[in-house]
Structure formats: C-alpha cells, structure tokens
Prior knowledge:
By secondary structure, the chain is an all-alpha fold. Helix content is 62%, strand content 0%.
Amino acid sequence: MRRRRWPLRVAVAVLLVLRLDVALFSPHLLLQAFNPLSTNLAALALCAVAWLAEAPSAADS
Length: 61
C-alpha cells in the first residue's frame, strides 16, 4: 500500500518559505550558532530521507 507523500511536500515548502522569510526580515539571526539556516537544512535533509524511504518499490506494483 503506497502512502501519500503530500505532507512531505508541504513541509518542504513551508521550510523554504520560512528560510526566505528569515533571510529577508531578520538577517541578523543567520549569524547565531543554531540559526534558521542550519536547522532548516537539517529538517530538509530529514524530509529527503523520508521521501526516499517512502519511494514506491517494484513489490508495491
């Protein structure tokens, strides 16, 4: 049974929009230790892992 993957797409879109928002409106936050750029990149990497883990295989068809 193939799972729906739309929540991952929504999460990626929201993370990209939030990163752009911080870059435009609060660029001083990008200089901190755990800044929005590094945390968003980690979250995007987790989304990529989840995307690849849910990829349909030959056994699903």
